[in-house]
Amino acid sequence: MMENLIHIVFDEAGAENLKESFALDDIIAGEILVIEDDLACGPLAPDAGQQKSSRRRWWEALAGEEAMGGVDRDWEKLRDLGQQMRQDENNEVWIWAAQNARDVCGYYNLLASLADFTGRVHLIYLNNLPFLNEKGGVFYPVRLMEILPREFLKARRLAREVTAAEFEVDGEEWNRLAAEGSLLRILEGGKKIRGEAESYFDKELLNRCRLDYVKAWRLVSQVRQKNRDHISEAFLYGRLGKLLEAQALEANGPFRQLRDAELKALSHTPGEPPIIEDDHENDR
Q1: One domain for residues 175 and 216
Q2: pLDDT at site 268
Q3: I need a labelling partner for 146 at 20 to 30 A (CA). Which of 2, 17, 126, 155 fits?
Q4: How far apart are CA 15 and CA 96, in angstroms?
Q5: Smallest Cα–Cα separation from 99: which of 225, 193, 32?
Q6: By residue range, what is the domain housing residue 45?
Q7: What pLDDT sits at residue 48?
Q8: Mean pLDDT, 10 residues at a time, over the chain (284 residues)?
Q9: Quick check: is 87 in a domain?
Q10: Is residue 187 a part of any domain in this protein?
Q11: How far apart are CA 240 and CA 28, in angstroms?
Q12: The last residue of a domain, from among 147, 180, 213
């Protein structure tokens, strides 16, 4: 068992699978921190305090006060992590990232908090690596939660130190994305993130309900399943809300919660569907 090991992951179900792997072989057993905020969407800022404030406002506007709690909890976790690393020089951090925008953005964002601990930070990036599913078939996971506990025993061998050069280069990449001002981020491959307008998924949402009414939860599920980044549900529901406000969509009668609404795309002029932008200048 490796003492003083702190694992960081970006999805709760993936954390549970990792924890279960400790019971199979406790050589890498340690504390697990789950980063809750999905940094693949919403405003960014080079300054951590400014980013926290802008993201709290953005999540509250998008999905209510409860949704912004993850930003505050992450802030506290990273503050406490820094204290742990300073108090005990034997502490090491292992960052687990699957090949999706949320995990890669989460990794980038951690670099500023961990920059003082070069040599003690490791990355396990599951980039185009084959794993076995429950039936013994080979597949390429895009989320940590898809990996069976026993397969983490293989994945742990991929741990490698994040070099000083990576701290600098990847940190600059994150600063570039923050300065760019996009509210949506897509993984192109490797660790390459591309900024997109928040209307990026609008056309797909509309096309999936052009012929008949479709439940909002089904629309969101279909778009998330098709997209390997599994973009935030709250983000997609926010886009449906904007399309309703712009009368690009209509609802089949009243509804209590948007996820239960039956939606259909309205016919406009031929060609591309309307693109609905939000004004988030105050959040950037």
Answers
A1: no
A2: 54
A3: 2
A4: 9
A5: 193
A6: 5-180
A7: 87
A8: 85 94 92 96 92 94 83 95 96 96 96 94 92 91 93 91 96 93 94 95 94 95 88 94 94 92 77 49 44
A9: yes
A10: no
A11: 43
A12: 180
pLDDT at 251: 95
The two tokens of residue 228 are 């390997």
Q: Out of 146, 180, 214, pick the residue that ends a domain.
A: 180
Q: How many domains does the chain have?
A: 2
Asked if 19 and 28 count as a contact pair (C-beta separation under 8 A), the reply is no
Find the farthest-apart pair of alpha carbons in the chain and give their distance in angstroms, rounded.
64
Quick check: pTM over 0.85? yes
Residue 36 CB-half CA count within 13 A: 15
Which pLDDT value is given to residue 281?
A: 44
